[in-house]
Amino acid sequence: MHEGIPDFAMPSEQEVRRAADSLRLLADPTRIKILWALLQGETSVACLAELVGAAPTAVSQHLAKLRLAGLVEGRREGTFIYYTAESAHVRALLTEALGQAAVTT
């Protein structure tokens, strides 16, 4: 234990890797826009594409990565899939990051 920091415990290697992977995944402007839109409510790929200004195929690829990471969920209705992101952790992280960006600009 370091003498200057009482009761200090370093996160495990696995926790650090997972955190780094999550932050890397969020380090994309389009994914941030997608997540922010999904935090407002459930929507389709077509609506997301219009909201974030990206092609539907690009949005689908981003959603696939976000879904694999457990950051978004999809619900099939007929031929459409509606996505949502209801994680309080994602909301807090994005709110903090966007707030920090506003302060530093």
UniProtKB/TrEMBL annotation:
The keyword Methyltransferase does not apply. Residues 11-105 form the HTH arsR-type domain. InterPro entries: ArsR-like_HTH, HTH_ArsR_DNA-bd_dom, Metal_resp_trans_reg, WH-like_DNA-bd_sf, WH_DNA-bd_sf. Pfam families: HTH_5 (PF01022). The gene is arsR_1. NCBIfam families: HTH_metalloreg. Keywords: DNA-binding, Transcription, Transcription regulation. One of its GO terms (molecular function) is DNA binding. This is Transcriptional regulator. The keyword Transcription regulation applies.
